[in-house]
């Protein structure tokens, strides 16, 4: 298959969100003289993941995630806090971190000459723009599509219909979506009738019925998929 349009997720696809998340939580808890433990991190991630899954399914709004996740997390720690206030502080710390995931920048810099690159993300608009700019990735994309600005989120077909309507001369057969989330990226791509690449950097087992067209474990492995002749897939050094 010959591809032309590449749609990239951001978190844990291009940028190391786990690292940024851990830093932000450490700083937030430090304000309250609490040391972040592995148990704390696991508790927060469990609460956060459940809320995001509900958001992806259209059951709650983005604001409900932001209002509830820290309220529920701190309640587990025996404290009652203002969820919105904690969310604002968390984003202050999160915005400061923009570590690249592997060789993502080098891969994008190679691809930008031959492909049309776009961002498709469910993250918050302010945070994502700041982190992409700080990581010096923003200029590599023709456009950035953020669910908060569109009013729909991955995997909703309405989200992808909007994205497709904004890309001139888009051909779904030549479009590929690359992301780390089976339930947002891969399912969304399938429902939108485009091919997908699951970036499984954590090397987890896929126990769902959602099947990507390709699975890779680092972004550099995308190169052979994109090139008709695998021998032309030059490694990033």
Automatic annotation (TrEMBL):
Its EC number is 3.1.3.5. Gene3D superfamilies: HAD superfamily/HAD-like, Putative phosphatase, domain 2. GO terms for molecular function: 5'-nucleotidase activity. It is an enzyme of class 3 (hydrolase). It comes from the Bacteria. Keywords: Hydrolase. This is Pyrimidine 5'-nucleotidase YjjG. It comes from Melissococcus plutonius.
């Amino acid at each position: 298959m010959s591809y032309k349009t590449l749609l990239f997720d951001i978190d844990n696809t291009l940028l190391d969100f786990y690292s940024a998340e851990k830093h932000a939580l450490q700083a937030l808890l430090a304000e309250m003289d609490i040391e972040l433990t592995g148990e704390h991190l696991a508790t927060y991630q469990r609460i956060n993941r459940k809320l995001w899954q509900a958001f992806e399914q259209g059951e709650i709004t983005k604001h409900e995630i932001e209002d509830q996740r820290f309220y529920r997390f701190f309640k587990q720690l025996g404290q009652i806090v203002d969820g919105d206030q904690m969310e604002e502080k968390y984003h202050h710390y999160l915005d400061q971190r923009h570590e690249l995931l592997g060789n993502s920048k080098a891969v994008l810099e190679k691809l930008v000459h031959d492909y049309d690159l776009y961002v498709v993300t469910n993250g918050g608009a302010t945070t994502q723009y700041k982190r992409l700019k700080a990581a010096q990735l923003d200029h590599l994309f023709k456009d950035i599509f953020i669910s908060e600005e569109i009013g729909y989120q991955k995997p909703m077909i309405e989200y992808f219909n909007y994205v497709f309507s904004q890309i001139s001369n888009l051909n779904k057969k030549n479009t590929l979506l690359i992301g780390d989330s089976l339930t947002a990226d891969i399912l969304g791509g399938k429902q939108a009738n485009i091919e997908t690449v699951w970036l499984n950097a954590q090397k987890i087992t896929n126990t769902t019925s959602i099947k990507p067209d390709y699975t890779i474990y680092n972004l550099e492995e995308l190169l052979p998929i994109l090139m008709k002749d695998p021998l032309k897939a030059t490694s990033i050094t």
